[in-house]
Amino acid sequence: MGLQAGTPWLQRDLVLLPTVVAMLLLCASAGPAPTASSRSATGFPPDCSRLRKNSPSGVYVIQPARSPPRVVWCDMDTEGKGWTVVQRNSHDTELTWKQSWTTYKYGFGNVHSDYWLGTEYLHLLTQQGTYKVRFVVRDKTNVTHYAEYDIFRVESEASGYPLRLGRHSGDGDDYLTLYHPKKGGIHDNMKFSTVDRDQDQYSGNCAKSYGGWWYNRCQNVLLNAKNYIVWPGFCDNGDCASSLILVKPTDVC
């Protein structure tokens, strides 16, 4: 008997095929992950995962490949430890997130409070190997939620710093890699936009209203804004109390 299009397992595999192909492409383009002994010529680790597991959370200096040393906050308390904090924001932040392309490129803020590592350094950090990401938001009732993607990469400035994400897990729905036409569309594979460099798919400039982000038309999720941190299902009205973006190497590939 030949295979029928209605065969349940065949339907399932056909649905999963685009995801599998995307995962293979992401894995193929990622280099080998830094080894446990990886250190720059100056002696700094390439990311926070290279710290000793009993190290406390706090400020450290890292140096991704082809990058100058960078001061970051290393989160050694979140599940798995060794997370490099690349973004932190609070609802009533003093930061102005409506910054220029160049400001976003090289980073701004204070690692002790709210900050953006720098889009260029996100690119260099995630080009070292295969990384995963955890997006964390705390709602107005002080409950913490997260969404994790088993692959995370930011491509080069020449290509517009587009976002690449793998498979989703977490305690809510996927609003970054799935298309939501009644909201802002999608974020995966979108280029980064700022007030002075509009790369979104909207007729206007989303970043002028909020801040730099991987916009489509404009957003489902937005963490880079003042007095407006939104994640559907957790803080639909933009009233999340805070956000974090954490990255670390993964062995998914």
Automatic annotation (TrEMBL):
<dbReference type="GO" id="GO:0007596">
    <property type="term" value="P:blood coagulation"/>
</dbReference>
<dbReference type="InterPro" id="IPR014716">
    <property type="entry name" value="Fibrinogen_a/b/g_C_1"/>
</dbReference>
<protein>
    <recommendedName>
        <fullName>Fibrinogen C-terminal domain-containing protein</fullName>
    </recommendedName>
</protein>
<dbReference type="InterPro" id="IPR002181">
    <property type="entry name" value="Fibrinogen_a/b/g_C_dom"/>
</dbReference>
<keyword id="KW-0964">Secreted</keyword>
<dbReference type="GO" id="GO:0005576">
    <property type="term" value="C:extracellular region"/>
</dbReference>
<keyword id="KW-0732">Signal</keyword>
<dbReference type="InterPro" id="IPR036056">
    <property type="entry name" value="Fibrinogen-like_C"/>
</dbReference>
<dbReference type="Pfam" id="PF00147">
    <property type="entry name" value="Fibrinogen_C"/>
</dbReference>
<dbReference type="InterPro" id="IPR037579">
    <property type="entry name" value="FIB_ANG-like"/>
</dbReference>
<keyword id="KW-0175">Coiled coil</keyword>
<feature type="signal peptide">
    <location>
        <begin position="1"/>
        <end position="30"/>
    </location>
</feature>
<keyword id="KW-1015">Disulfide bond</keyword>
<keyword id="KW-0325">Glycoprotein</keyword>
<feature type="domain" description="Fibrinogen C-terminal">
    <location>
        <begin position="39"/>
        <end position="251"/>
    </location>
</feature>
